[in-house]
Amino acid sequence: MKNKLMYLVAVLFAACVGFSSCGDDDDDDIPVEFSGTWKFDKTHFVFDYSEENITIPSMDPMTPQEITNTVIQLGNEKMGEYFTGIRFDSKKDLTILMKIDGANKELSATYVVQKSKIDVTLNKDELSVLVGKDIPMMPAISLIYEMGTTDLTLFIDKTYIQTLLSIVDNLDLDLSMQEQLIFTAAKAILNKTTTLEIGATLKR
């Protein structure tokens, strides 16, 4: 794959976009409000920085607002090429729908709801096959979700983004020089970031 970093982050990002029903009964019925297949609609991104400008390698300094506008634009343009949506299979299982090199692929996961958050655990073996590299055991990813009238907004915060970057870092990927610079810059920017929410809005 031409862009290993972009793809892996997209897969991990896609894996973060799951939510579920409330309630602890033992049946596998999916509540009507959550049932069906939810499709990616747009990027959710909230960003605040401790300084007026942000330095990015090979680019002019940018303000937090410029970063926000750029990420949302690129996310809306590119994320749909990798992540297409989520299908609920049962009360405890969901399937992440995506595309790899233009081919439709699926990644299964389990989930548990904790009030306004959901903990999503990926199928480690399936993820390893998708990225072509053995993936170490991953902790559940905790997501915040908000339900609107016709859509759902799901996102992770700064702490969990740092966890994901740490996982990517430990995979020892064969990144290009440009990809490595971007990855290093992302970690440096996070150190001075005061607020960060990144996720997606889905529509049924």
Distance between the termini: 30 Å
Reading off the top of the CATH hierarchy, the class is best stated as Mainly Beta
Unreliable stretches: 17-27
Whole-number mean pLDDT: 78
What percent strand?
Answer: 25-35%
Considering the chains and any ligands shown, give keywords for the structure.
Lipocalin; globular; 204 residues; alpha+beta
Would you mind describing this structure in some detail?
With 204 residues, the chain is α+β, with helices and mostly antiparallel strands. The chain has one domain: Lipocalin (Beta Barrel). It is 31% helix and 34% strand. It is built from five helices and eight strands, in the order αβαββββαββααβ. A hairpin with a 2-residue loop joins strand 3 and strand 4. It is globular and about 45 Å long. About 5% of the residues have low confidence.
